[in-house]
Structure formats: C-alpha cells, structure tokens
Batch of 2 targets.
Target 1
Amino acid sequence: MPAYRLTYFDGRGRGEAIRLALAVAGQEYEDIRIKDNEEWEKVKSEMPLNAVPIFSVDGETISQSTAILRYIAREYNLYGDGNMNMTKVDTLISTYEDFFGEMIKPFMEPDEGKKKDMTQTLKEKTVPKFVKFVGKMLSDNAENSGWLVGSKLTVADIAIFCMFGDVEGMLGKDTAKAFLEDKNLVAHNERVASFPAIKEWIAKRPQSQCDNAEVRLKLEGYNLASAADAGVLDDVFNEAEDVCPSGTPTRIPYLTVADIVVFYMFGAAENLYGKDTAKAFLEDKNWVVHSAKVAAVPEIKEWLQNNPKHRFSYCLHQRFSESTSHKMPTYKLHYFPIRARGELIRLIFAAAGETFTDQIITFADWPSKKSEMPTGQLPVLEVDGEKLCQSLTIVRFLSREFGLAGENNFEQAKADQVVDTVGDLLTEFFKYAFEKDETKKEELKKKTFDTVLSTFATNVTKFLDMNKTKSGYFVGKKLTVADLAVYEGFEDFLVVDPSSLDKYPKLVAHRKLVLSNPRVKAYLDKRPKTNV
C-alpha cells in the first residue's frame, strides 16, 4: 500500500473534504498540521505552489485541493460509476470551489459598508442560487438514493457536506437560511454526517484555533480587515469507468491494446463464420457500442478505410463506419465567440481528432439564451442532448473520454493539479482583461504582467521539472490535457505581449512541443484571432 501524507493547516477548510474522503476509504495517512503563521512561513517555500494542502504519495506530491480529492476518489471508488456520473461529481466539486470563492469575498473587503452589502448579497442571491442548483441535482438523481450521484456515497456528497458546513459556520444561520429551509438538502447533510466512517471522524477530529475563519483565511493568504463576523467552521476509484459487462475492455478513460484485440476478435468471428455464429456478440449492445468506439478512434478508422481488402477489415469497416454516427455521442459546445474558458475544450476536441458542433452565442444573443443553461453561465457542453456545465468539469469529462487525462490515477492527479493551476491563472488574467475602467485596467495590467505572470510561470515550470520522464510534457511521455491547458493559459499573455515568456525558456520549448502535434497545429492555424 502507498504511504500517504497530508500537509495542511491545523483546521478544516480546504483540507477537511480530503480527510473525510480518506476516512471513508479507511486509509491511514500522516496528518501534518501547520499550527500558526510562524510555522507556515518556515515551510511555505517548500510547497510547489507556496500553498497547501499538499498530498504526498510515496514521496511524490500532488497540489491543488480538488486534484487531491479526485485522486482519492478514483483510488477508492468514491467517484461514481461511469464517465457521466464522474462528470456529475466533478460538477459538484467545482460548484463547491466556486461557492467557497464567493463566500470568502466579504472577509477580504476592507470597507465595512461594502462588506455588509456583500454579506447581504450572499444571503439573498448567492446562497439561494447554489442551493437551487445542488438541490436540483439531488432531486434529478435517477437512482433516488438520497445521494447526489448514483446509488452510493461519493466525494460529491462529502464536498457539498463541507460546503454547507462552511456557510453556516463562517457566516451564521441567517446567511445559511436558504439551505436550512431546504428539507432535502438538510436530510442529505444528516445522511452524510451519519455515514459510519464520517461520524467516527467527526467525533474524534482535533479542534483547533485554525477552525476560526479569520485565523484560517489569514494563513491561506487573505488580508482580512476585521474579525467581527468571523465564526467557527461547522461540520463540514478504483478508477470508475464506463465498464462493459464482465470486465469488458473499454476505451474509457483511454484506449489500450485490449480494446483493439477484442475489437479484432469479434470482427474476425463475424467475417470468418458469419452473423449467425457471431449472434451473441451482435445482440449485446454494450459490446457493439464498445466496438463502435474503437472503430471511431481516428487512427483505426483511417486504417480500416485505407485497407478495405484486408481479410478482416471489410466486415469491421462496413459494420462500424455506417453505425458509428448513431452509436457514438454527439457533442455541441455552447460558448461565446472568444477563447477564454471555452478554448481548452476546443483544443481537446482538436487533439483527439473528434468532431463537435461549435455553437457560438453572441453577446447580443446571450440574455435570451441564459435561462436555457443549467447555471446561467457558459461554457455548456451537450452530450447527446444532455447538458454539462462548469468549464473544468467538461475538460475532465472529455479528457477521460478521449484518452488525454493520463495513463493512470497518479498521472491523472498530476494533470489535474496543472489544469487547476492554469484555471487560477486565467481567473487572475481576466480581472485585467475585462476591467472597464481604463485607469484601474492599467494598474491591473502592471500587476498581471509583473507579479501574476512571474508567479504562475515559475510554479508551472516546477511542475514541468517534476516529470521524472523528462519528456518535455507535464505528465508521462505523451500529450495530455495538462499540456493543452498550459499552452492556452499563457496564450492570453502572449497576445498582449509576445515577449511575455522570454524569461522562461522551458515553457517556450514546451509550446513548440505542443505545436508539433499535427492535429493541434492544424486547429491553431485556422482558429479565429481574438483578444481573449
């Protein structure tokens, strides 16, 4: 068994969902707790992003709290069954992160009047909006199990449990009113709290000063003006795949030789002995869908088309070239006519050689389309008509679907931490890019191109250096979503200032490596030019 070590502050915050997941998994780990600011300053520089939590697996580290949570979920079957359920879990984890970001804004506001208004907005608009969304996901669960996704506890339940514990503990029952009045969510919270392993952990977990909101947020780097309304925080995969029967090989999350061998085996049976002998295979929809997926892999599809006279190719090509269009999912991306949060999704489609409908929504048309989207935001991806929201949730879904997530659970965690870091980078860049006041924009530009660029370029380079294969890629020996995310993440800086990365030769070399991928280059050569 691997040796685990979690490093975080002596409190709950972003570390508690990780601890709860490990408790449910029944896994022992070393719980390193940073007691105070003096201790934190001593160890801060040792952290990959100068931040915690950090999770060590046999000495190798994973940063970014949600990347750690997803790693544990995959390792211990807490992620849901099938890629679509995993994507719903991702949506809820991202929802928790978004909510946490909104919740801490009043603590960061120095003006007491504005702080009061922001807290009121949280109570009247923000909390009800998130309650409505999470409540709908709970009620829409076809399993009707009382859990948020599927028929069993997942890390989504743990994250949402922590989410509502945060709002009541940090901001009080009055602000948490919308949640406390939703009987289904309260029942869900109680269900999670009564789960044996979680109940046991809550009963014995340490109490500390860092559970005070003001202390913990200061440690995490937030400059708080006052502690007047700071409270005490409350309670807060075996790589699950879209598996065919009896452990049938599958292309999710990535194609293996097992998929190809089985695909070839059943093609040979039908070709040599006829449909009657291959009847059992042809009547099993899961097997047929699996074969259709293999046949749709661009390189295999091309080989079948180019080798029509091969003794096994004819049957395979005839059956699946005609059926793939209705066997394989159809994808439609809804986004604005810019790159921003939608471009990494487009790059994944390009790198995978997969087709999709790029449904552009103009800014003029957006007000009339907004109510059609699950959270009133873009991007949204439709998969056979079912809508997925949250940009990085969509990114992870497609990465698993098309084999760009990493070769194993640890590689996927490594890719996750890079993608999440680039997400943070974009958030900082967009503060500058979308600022309307020209004076403020000029001030933000200096901060963005001096401090922000330097910090993130340095941290991302560390991730590149941490790849033991020294392949030039961020994870393993081939292109993953991490490489695409970094390429696109710094594109915005280069559009404004082409010399932005001159001080970071490893990132410049990495960009050239990404461009050496023919599909990616072909897409980039033809995509429209936009400022963001």
Target 2
Amino acid sequence: MSQAMMSLPPVHSKCLVPISNLMSKELSSIPTWAKENRKPAFIGGGENIPFTTFGQLKFLWGNVPAYDILDLERNEGATFDQDINLCFAASGDLRNLIHTMKTIPSSYTRMSTAVLNDKEDLVTARNVILLLMSVMVVSEDLPEMMLHLWYSARIPAKLANILREDITPLVATVVQKIQSRDETTVQAKTWLKGTVSLRVCLLKHQWEFILKTLTTELTLVGSESNRKAVVLHDTRIDYRERHDLNLSPPLRSCAHKLRVTGVLLPFGSCDQRFNMPNPTLFDANTGEWLQKDSAAALDGYHLRSIIDFGQKEVPKSDINGCLYLYSISALCQFLSRIRKTPMRFIILGTNALLLAAQLVGHDTIKEGFDRIEVANIADSNYVGLQPVLSTLGPLLKRPVDNPQATLITLFMNATHLAEWDLGDTYKLSTLEKTLSRVKRFLPYKPSSNEYDPGVIRFKSAEGMFKDRDMLFNHWMKATNVEKIVAQTIMKMRNGNKVTKKWLYKAPGLKRSLTSCFTRALMVM
C-alpha cells in the first residue's frame, strides 16, 4: 500500500465550517432542559433513568472496542508454525477481523482461515461487499472507499462506481445461476485472487438481498431526510445533550458535525463529493435509516489508540479526523497482509449454533479452530452459555494440537443482572463509597436541583467506579457458571490471556482517567 492512501482528503476554504457556526442551540454547554428548568426526557417517573431507543435496531457498527482475538506472540508464540483457523461465530462488523489480521507478526507466513457468521442479513451483506472489495478490487484509495462504505451515510461517485461496476456483476452472476435452486439450500460461491480466496455460503434469499442492496435506487435528498429524522429528531434533543454534556467543546462540535453531515472525515474537510446515499445503511425499499440515533462509529474502538495515532496529522480534539486516519491505516495494514500471505475467508449467514452443520466437510472442521469469538450471544437473553459451550466448544482444536485454543465470549449484561439480583440494599450500601471515588476525579457541586447538568454528569460516571469484579463473581455463582462449564468438555481459563477482562475499568491515575471518562460517557 502506498503512502498516498494515508493522505488527508482535500480541504477547501469554501467547505470549512467554523466551529463557532456549529455552536448552535444543541452545542451550548448548558442543556436545553436546564435553561427551561424542566425534567429531561430521559428521566422516568421513578429514580432510574429508563433505557430507550430511537430508530431502527440494526447493529451495523461495533459497540465494543475492536481487539485482536489471536494475540499470537503472547499465546502460541512468534515462532508458531501451523495454519491458523479463526471463527467469528456472531461477527457483527469486520472490526475484530481487521484488527486481528493486521496485528499478526509479519514473520508468520502460513495459511490463515477466517470464518465469519452473522444471522442478520444486512450485517452479512455488508461484510460480503467489503470483503469482495478487499479481494477483487485494485485501487490506490481502496482503504478510504472501504471506510466510507462502512461508516459514511453519503458516498462519493468513485465508490458508487466500484459497487456498480466491480461488485454488483459478481453477485448478479450468482443470483442468476441460482434462480431455479431450492430456497432452503445453501448456495456457495468462491472467488480467488492471488493467495486469497473468499467463499460465501448463503441461502437464495440472502444472495438476492445483497443484490437488492447493491442495486437500490435511493435519492440523496430522501435518504438524508430519513437519516436526519432519526439522528436529529426534535424529541431526542435531551438525549443528544446528555451525550454531549460529557464532551469538551471541540469533541461536542465533532459529534454534532458527524450527525449533520453523516460523513466520516477530518473536521475541516470538504464533503461536496459525497453526493450519493450509502446503499448499505438505508432500507432498500423504504429508504429508512437503519440504525439507532445513538449509533456511533467511535464505539467500536479504543479512544486512546485513535487519538494517539490521529494526532500525528490532525489536532487530537478532531476525533472524527483521528478515527478516519486510524481506520484507513488499519485497512491498509489488513489489505497488505491478505495480499502477501495465504488467506481464506468463509462467510455464512446462519444461527451460530448451526455453524458445525454448515461447515461439514471443510478443512476447518476437520482441523478445528484456534479461536472462536462469539460476541455476547452467551448472555441469557440471547443463546445462553450452555448451548454456546456445548455446540461451539467442540469446534476448537484439541489441546494436543493447540493448547492455547480458546473460545472468547462477552457477558455484556452480567454485572447489571447481578445488581438487579442484589437489589436496593446493595445499591444503598455501596453508593457512598462509589461516589467518593468519583469525586476524586470529577468536580462536583451539590445542587438541590436533581436535574442539574453537573448532577447528571456526576451520576453518569458512577458506573465506572463500581466493584465490577464482585458483581461478576456474584453473577457467576447465581447462574451456576462453574456447573454449566463442568457439564461440557470446556474448561475456564485461569485469567484472561487474549484480551483484558474489563475494557473500561477506570485506571488509578487522574491523567489516564481523562480519556477513560470521555470514552465511557460518550454512549447515550
């Protein structure tokens, strides 16, 4: 990949938007609810802040920071000399795949296989399109084009041409060939280029869905109107201002500009060339915006890593520019990796528990996986721990073949469920200690107004200082995790060796806590 890919997009004086012009009503440091002396919309009838969503419930961007699911040097070792098989059983977007592949040591040159599966058709469609671009398209600015397909609501004509001329014919050929095929039979197609292959195994209607997505005729005016009706809806101003309350003025301006433009670019960059709707972020039939108003590309990455990388070329307060540069660099490294060493991608779109049946006869099933990442489907409100371990656990390589083979799961709701189980007595007994921890790092002025912005901000930081280890251990005992594991062939690791146990745990130093606060509080 050439250095040209890392150059900033053109900045024209007529396109620059002064930050002062963006400091509208929404960007005031004083929220509207405080100015109007009223209860904010996100406060319910009781003491608890209700969980509400607005917009479509499609999860097209990650909500947990990307991480390397392999960490080869720390586990198997830098001299590991076997083929690597990875399985993303409930993949979501491609961020973990890309982060993993780009961090594999350059000295490793064996075959790598990555199986990506997600039962959501739109997630699968986007992954297929992005990987087809990775494998089949040759373009100097391919990383930037992939970035905008991934995160921008509007795309440039060049990307639209790539989709129309390079990607759509590939999918259309498959759809034409399977017209007479059974609706319930998986149809597979493999594309080869150099040392990389992409095999897509989907049902007929899923292939047709991808083609429909690629060929939809949306208007820019209509799609932008639909998007802004979600992300800038008048009834959601309190939620947006609660989000922005935790940001510095420059970060607030960046967040607002991204809501307004829908294009991920450095702050002063011209977006006039982005004159077509991104077909993968809108409903192909209705043109509706397909995500919640709180969906944010930034949620899928570590803020500190983004800023450290981006501030080499843009101000560190330009978080959009930092994410833009960080993401393009990651995509450059990913593309370089897959074009230099043997790589196989396999994409499926099924229930994670049916993966074994769909992979019958494939080499990865015979050999087993070195890592299986299942996101949070082991949570009790999804698939559950026992079915995940019993069904996917046996797909790992045997300890004799790779003693480091690991299944990784996220228990997203565990500590919340533990708090619920412990009840109000626990909350009251720990509240004073928790708040005293918050006061060490966050200024607090007592107020008789419970809706005072300072009080709201202070309360939003409370969750970072709770004893999560105690809560998690309580949840493990309450749900009989050890008993569930004992009923399978799996064994729980003694300590995490692939990723941190707590991604957002507050560090002990005030200096490093600043970024931790910012990242943790940016979620509505």
